[in-house]
Amino acid sequence: MPAKHDINKVGVESSDFPILCETCLGPNPYVRMTKQEFGNECKICNRPFTVFRWNPGAGARYKKTEICNTCAKIKGVCQTCLLDLEYGLPVQVRDAALGRKQDAPTSDINKQFYIQNLEAQMANSADGQVFDSDAANRAGREMLKNMARTDPHYKRNRPHICSFFVKGECKRGGECPFRHELPKENELSKQNLVDRYYGKNDPVAKKILREQAESKGMKAPEDKTVTTLLFLGLPVTTEAEIRASLAGACPFVKPTEVRSLTIVEASHCAFVNFVNRPLAERVAEALSAQNGIEVSGKRAKVVWGRSRPQKGKGPSAAGSASASGSGSVTAV
Ligand SMILES: [Zn+2]
Ligand SMILES: [Zn+2]
Ligand SMILES: [Zn+2]
């Protein structure tokens, strides 16, 4: 039975077994681990925690837990690689697909407060889950299942690349425990653990989200002035309803960041214009991971608007509803 954490005893964290994904654990279920109580500070909450260290298999590098048991449970991630345990995906991808809010504390004190708060919520909820699963949308879960990386990727456990070899200076030759190869442009290596944990600025997640959006015909237009998305196949609805749907699906969008919202009832579509391009891209990626957006009980398709020159006004975002087969539509 899982022990409830006593939040009055913060700063003390001891556990018998780490929370690990299959990849980090390695193929041998009987792997030997060394355990060091209060061996290090958790990289997220800074509290001392039990550090486990093990070798995940022949030819692999030693791995150790980087964050505490509690922080791992709160986000449902592996204590070593910080990827989601259920889908093997970065937190940022999972949360975009499920429309989960990503709030992260900023200062050290806030950090402790934030984790303790979630810890208390977790202890009080029946199933130990912090997040309301009703709020998570079904389409997002479906999409995550398709994107899931469930087979273990043992390649991730290889030794790191030898930095001396890269500079042409390694004299250890075959004895060298590190990999003698030149690094490829690797986005993973630039990752910051805290960002990965909170699902912010995660280059791997960005790549995955971009690729899945592109695979669904949601490639962001070359023309960077396009900041409009079209919602197609809408039922009869109102601007307020669309805004509420958007707030639910993409909680990172502030109401003021929707520059304009134009419903074209005859074509059952709406033009949603955002204040900047990075935001529009983020919304496009999240909504494509959610397979569209549910508005007034119906799931609408989301596509990018098109740039089209307008007389005297310079390029402005407009869209074509030809994708829905109802002829052309012009933004007002
Ligand atoms: Zn922690
Ligand atoms: Zn892992
Ligand atoms: Zn070397």
Automatic annotation (TrEMBL):
Gene3D superfamilies in UniProt: 3.30.70.330, Zinc finger, CCCH-type
Ranges of Low complexity composition bias in the record: 316-332
Pfam families attached to this UniProt entry: STL11_N (PF21369), Torus (PF16131)
GO molecular function: pre-mRNA binding; U6 snRNA binding; zinc ion binding
Subcellular location: Nucleus
Protein keywords: Metal-binding, mRNA processing, mRNA splicing, Nucleus, RNA-binding, Spliceosome, Zinc, Zinc-finger
Domain C3H1-type span(s) in chain numbering: 156-183
Gene Ontology biological process terms from the UniProt entry: mRNA processing; RNA splicing
Region (Disordered): 304-332
Main location: nucleus
Record-linked InterPro entries: Cwc2/Slt11 (IPR039171), Nucleotide-bd_a/b_plait_sf (IPR012677), RBD_domain_sf (IPR035979), STL11/RBM22-like_N (IPR048995), Torus (IPR032297), Znf_CCCH (IPR000571), Znf_CCCH_sf (IPR036855)
Domain of life: Eukaryota
Zinc finger annotations (C3H1-type) as residue ranges: 156-183
GO cellular component: Prp19 complex; U2-type catalytic step 1 spliceosome; U2-type catalytic step 2 spliceosome
Function: Involved in pre-mRNA splicing. Facilitates the cooperative formation of U2/U6 helix II in association with stem II in the spliceosome. Binds to RNA.
Oligomer and partners: Associated with the spliceosome.
Family of this protein: Belongs to the SLT11 family.
Protein name: Pre-mRNA-splicing factor SLT11
Originating species: Kwoniella heveanensis BCC8398
